Amino acid sequence: MKAQLGEREERMAGNHYDIIIVGTGPSGLTAAIYGQRLGMKVIAFGDIPGGNLYMIERLMNFPGFVGGVPGAQFGATVFAQAQAEDVNFPMTRLERLIHQDNAFVAVDVNGERYEGRSAIVACGVVPRMLKVPNADKPGIYFCSLCDGPLFRNKKATIVVIGGGNMAGQEALSLSNIAERVLLIYHGSKFKMEAVMRKAIEKKANIEVLLGTTVVAFKGEERVNGVVVSTEKEGQKEIAVDGVFMAVGWGPNLEMLNISVEKTEEGYIKTNQKLMSSFPGLFAAGDVRDTDIRQVITACADGARAATYALEYLEGMKD
Questions:
Q1: C-alpha distance from residue 49 to each of 19, 24, 289, 295 (Å)
Q2: pLDDT, the chain, mean
Q3: What pLDDT, on a 0 to 100 scale, did the predictor assign at position 14?
Q4: Which CATH class is domain 140-245?
């Protein structure tokens, strides 16, 4: 019996950390690297090295990479760097993060419990869906790099919905696969960068539909049509082979069972040191209330959050 108790205590001691990080995207991985190098014991949860970076076909605006770098490659490299610093990666998602008995408690999807003296929420964002009929049917995708090849050599007509850089990138990527790409946006002008707009204009098989609202998806077992509406023409149905969504993102906070102040959109509010309204709980990257959401700013957030987490923990000793 004593031997069993000793084994349990030893296992629990092994599951106690200075920082629990939620997320393995650019902000989470950078926080893990900085935290470990600052002398803290760090664990980071997530099952995709690099998080959503794999959705970026080529990262063009991160300094140091002439000609850009594939998002998946960049994510894998930063992940390997964090591994080299001896960060613990269980490679599982969190079921919930709570605060109990003066400690942050992380419970993963396998029911394993981990304790931390502080925590950094860096779980990023998830794609938003349109609230229209049949939006939950198969045939709607979120990543051209992942699912675009399904339409190769099929003379496919594909719809991309959105008006930002992500929508432009998806349309350009899919134009190399599909016979016809329809880029649909409800606004009167795109929000994407000028260089992206010019690239789209040069593609003969990309058709732009501005001032056009998607009101429904059609199809029995899977989506094979999109119903759109314009002021001039009213409603009409367009036959499609697939739909790629790029209408924005929202915070991914389902696992957070700790009450914190948030914006109306659900992003975590932080102070100048990236701490939330709950002491010891920090937020970094796209999941927090910030004016710029880019890979480079997410990395900067991760470095700052880890540094301020150490400052917080040292203050607890006083």
A1: 19, 6, 24, 14
A2: 91
A3: 67
A4: alpha beta
Q: Are 140 and 245 in contact (CB under 8 A)?
A: yes
The β-bridge partners of 283 are: 121
What's the token pair of residue 146? 């992942």
| Extents of the domains making up the chain | 2-126+249-317, 140-245
DSSP 274: S
At 308, list the tokens: 């301020």
Q: What are phi and psi of 242, to 5 degrees?
A: -165, 160
CA distance 20 to 23: 10
Q: How many CB atoms lie within 10 A of CB 261?
A: 11
Judge whether 90 and 108 are in contact, CB under 8 Å: yes
Residue with tokens 């937020």: 283
pLDDT in tens, 153-173: 999 999 999 999 889 999 999
C-alpha to C-alpha distance for 174 and 221, rounded to whole angstroms: 23
Strand pairing report for 103-108 and 94-100: antiparallel
Q: Provide the total of helices (H) and of strands (E) in the chain, helices listed first.
A: 7, 16
Cβ atoms of residues 154 and 55 within 8 Å: no
How far is the C-alpha of 198 from the C-alpha of 58, rounded, in Å? 17
CB 85 within 8 A of CB 36: yes
Q: Which residues does residue 217 pair with via DSSP β-bridges, in sequence order?
A: 226
* Angle made by CA atoms 249, 187, 244, in degrees to the nearest 5: 45
| Superfamily of domain 2-126+249-317, CATH level 4 | FAD/NAD(P)-binding domain (3.50.50.60)
For the chain, how far is it from start to end, CA to CA, in angstroms?
39
